[in-house]
Amino acid sequence: MKIQLRRELTERYELYAKLTNRNVNDVIQSALSDWMDTCGDGDIEVITGVPMDTEAQHFPFLVAEHSASMPLLN
Q: Is it the case that residue 73 has pLDDT exceeding 90?
């Protein structure tokens, strides 16, 4: 698979890799994996209604059939 990143984002990954003494490809792979474990699986659960079997933190309130508005408190 080939993924093309904007130059600005690539520079941020390069800087992070340098600061953490890691390989850029490893940093990007870690970021993609982390994204899928947290956001991607959650999106799949919301869209399909089927919980993903991962170690990711799940938000069961997102897959509720009905949602209610809640006021934000300061």
A: no
Q: Kindly report, residue by residue over 29-39, the tens digit of the pLDDT.
A: 999 999 888 88
Lookup: tokens for 18:
């340098």
Domain range annotation of the chain: 7-63
CB contact at 8 A, 45 and 58: yes
Q: Model pTM greater than 0.90?
A: no
Question: DSSP secondary-structure letter at 20?
Answer: T
Burial 23-61 (b: 16+ CB within 10 A, else e): eeeebbeeeeeeebeeebbbeebeeeeeeeeeebeeeee
